[in-house]
């Protein structure tokens, strides 16, 4: 068995391995090329390894692990994180999977490694290489907002394979609606006119990022205009992403980004809150952005809105405005500092993790890679 570096020209090999192992990436060759060539870090570091291919003794490609560079900042210092992604190996060669993982963890000039879409197997292997769960106790607690009670009830019944779905969806939906009414969760209030839908990430996001990055003791992935456009508008289609901003004059003081997801098997359309940033801890701004996200999702025919992660006051705000929860199983987010010994990354106070981190929201995937339910 041999491992070689993957190249951009390996598109068909990578897709073939992933597809036959259940990771159905919805990315054509043109998007694949742009995804790598427009990556903000690779533009300046073209020799960066984008992954590795596992070949058997006959020279056939039987495994792959993709390696995505992501720039972070902490107290004015830039850190390079690498997200292990799209790890797939044919069944008969699974015992050789560790060869790909070893190449990944042997990288130089890296500050930390992360896996944000871990399943049971990859999570166990990351832990075997002394990776840890991120120090954020609530990360595996998904917040839920049900916005179409009957359709959500139908999807839940289909998932549980309960018979008589067409009949039971109505009483089940009514019970969910009644619970919300009793607890006075009303998401349909009038929204401030300062909440605006944007079609793209413009220069105002550069100004916003320059202010956001100055927050002390906070580990943040780059969120400038170039990086945001690469993250959301290369591998994914623009139609999947909704950009909501809160404006003071023409300046952004907060934003929320949604991405749509569809589970065909149980006929469930949902939106996920991918990113949610505020310059100041302001409950009214947070509430208006969230309520607009819920109202937009309802108009778009979704059944639920979900949110993973965030910490501090933002997490407190979201929990106050959310009624329902579910648990992510298995735990999805592991990290490992590149240097041995104590690391500032072990400090829970610096983390504000969300679906923007790692590869969680980079791709459109059939039966999403991080579908844990």
Quick structural overview:
The chain has eleven helices and 17 strands. The protein is α+β, with helices and mostly antiparallel strands.
Oligomeric state as shown: single chain
Order of secondary-structure elements: EHEHHEEEHEHEEHHEHEHEEEHEHEEE
Find the CATH superfamily of the largest domain.
Gcn5-related N-acetyltransferase (GNAT)
* CATH hierarchy: architecture of the largest domain: 3-Layer(aba) Sandwich
Roughly how much helix do the residues carry, as a percent range? 25-40%
- Rounded to the nearest angstrom, the radius of gyration is 21 Å
Please give the CATH class of the largest domain: Alpha Beta
Question: How is this fold's topology laid out?
Answer:
Blueprint: E1 2-5, H1 11-20, E2 24-25, H2 29-37, H3 40-44, E3 51-55, E4 61-74, E5 77-89, H4 97-105, E6 112-115, H5 120-128, E7 132-133, E8 141-146, H6 149-160, H7 165-182, E9 195-198, H8 204-212, E10 220-221, H9 225-233, E11 241-248, E12 251-263, E13 268-278, H10 283-299, E14 304-307, H11 312-320, E15 324-327, E16 334-337, E17 365-366
Parallel strand pairs: 5-6, 13-14
Antiparallel strand pairs: 1-3, 2-17, 3-4, 4-5, 4-10, 6-16, 7-16, 8-14, 8-15, 9-11, 11-12, 12-13
Helix pairs in contact: 6-7
